[in-house]
Design brief:
The complex is a heterodimer. Chain A contains no helices and eleven strands. Chain A is mainly beta. In chain A, strands 2, 4, 5, 6, 9, 10 and 11 form a seven-stranded mixed beta sheet that branches. In chain A, strands 1-3-8-7 form a four-stranded antiparallel beta sheet, with no helix packed on it. In chain A, a hairpin with a 2-residue loop joins strand 7 and strand 8. Chain A is globular. The chains are: A mainly beta, B mainly beta. The interface between A and B is medium-sized, with 28 and 25 residues.
């Protein structure tokens, strides 16, 4: 275990469903991130939270809605997804925002939209 | 922000051989990092090299950085089947940006 826990590990959802991905870290990190990894494409940075405030949103469709209730938890709420949203969603954390130190990643949630 | 680009896209070697992967980037950096990803899992941080460093070692890993050429290389010596994974470089232009990775296969 890396110290960053993502649940569920696998999720299959229909295009009209609403579901949430959860990420939890107890490393004392102040920044958390959502990345999307599609087959044979670079990881896409979706959202950045620093001290529970969203600091970056990289033109992500509104059907993805993040929530960071405290520095240890990060959610990604999903609704009305498309088949092309099927991917591995990775959560990461770091001591502070930015890349001065290594990121710690969770094992990801494999999402399939049917 | 800009991301690193790894080369080659795929590499297949025999156990015991050395594996070399390269990374190029476009803008100035403070540091460059290498990560490893086993199939369908999260990324694991391997090593960070700062812009004022030229070479860094960690076990069987050796990373070099040439800021004049804006490139880095990751060398895995005496490879093992368990080294089979995808390897990514990432640069610190703001938040971490990753390339598409090099898929390394080590055959027993």
């Amino acid at each position: 275990e890396t110290g960053v826990t993502q649940t569920p590990r696998h999720l299959v959802m229909g295009m009209t469903n609403k579901k949430s991905l959860k990420c939890e870290q107890h490393l004392g990190h102040n920044a958390m991130y959502w990345y999307k990894q599609s087959a044979k494409k670079p990881l896409e940075l979706m959202f950045v939270y620093s001290l529970e405030e969203r600091v970056e949103n990289n033109s992500v469709p509104s059907r993805f809605s993040p929530e960071c209730p405290n520095s240890s938890h990060l959610f990604l709420h999903l609704h009305t997804l498309q088949p092309e949203d099927s991917a591995l969603y990775l959560c990461a954390s770091s001591p502070g925002q930015g890349a001065a130190y290594g990121y710690t990643f969770g094992s990801g949630t494999r999402l399939t939209v049917v | 922000s800009q991301q690193g680009e790894e080369d080659p896209q795929a590499l297949s070697i025999q156990e015991g051989e050395n594996a070399t992967m390269n990374c190029s980037y476009k803008t100035s950096i403070n540091n460059l990092q290498w990560y490893r990803q086993n199939s369908g899992r999260g990324l694991v941080h391997l090593i960070l090299i700062r812009s004022n460093e030229r070479e860094k070692h960690s076990g069987r890993l050796r990373v070099t950085l040439d800021t004049s050429k804006k490139s880095s290389s990751l060398l895995i010596t005496a490879s093992r089947a368990a080294d089979t994974a995808s390897y990514f470089c990432a640069t610190d232009g703001g938040d971490m940006r990753f390339g598409a990775g090099t898929r390394l296969t080590v055959k027993p």
